[in-house]
Amino acid sequence: MSQPVTTNPLIIMLINMTVVFLVLIALGLVINLIHMIDPTRPKEKKQEEAAPAAVAAAEPAPAVEPAADEKGISPEIVAVIAAAIASYGYGVEQIRAIRPIERDGWKNSGRMRLSHRRS
């Protein structure tokens, strides 16, 4: 039998870590190559269609604001809510109404108590 090349644990550790990181880099390159030649990737045409939807979402929705003002919600709050909904990918035209919730403490307390019993 042959003798080991080295018995120094630090050199063995460095060799092993180098091999592991080289394998990880090779796997990363293979993954990137697969992403480049992926036949199931959506076509570029779909991305072009999404761009006009984003422009439409940035337009203000005058139909929402007057209805919200009647309920007592300020236009700034309506703008913030519309921006938050638009950030999720929905269009401003999909907002039908913005209404404040009723704040009935006793009713909500009963609902919370029932929900805790069921779980």
Automatic annotation (TrEMBL):
List, as start-end ranges, the regions of compositional bias called Low complexity.
50-66
Recite the UniProt keywords alphabetically: Cell membrane, Membrane, Transmembrane, Transmembrane helix
Give this protein's Gene Ontology molecular function annotations.
sodium ion transmembrane transporter activity
For the region Disordered, what residue ranges are annotated? 42-68
Question: Which terms in the GO cellular component ontology are assigned?
Answer: plasma membrane
Q: Where in the cell is it found?
A: Cell membrane
TM regions (residue ranges): 12-37
Q: Name one GO biological process term.
A: sodium ion export across plasma membrane
NCBIfam families on file: oadG_fam
Q: What is this protein called?
A: Glutaconyl-CoA decarboxylase subunit delta
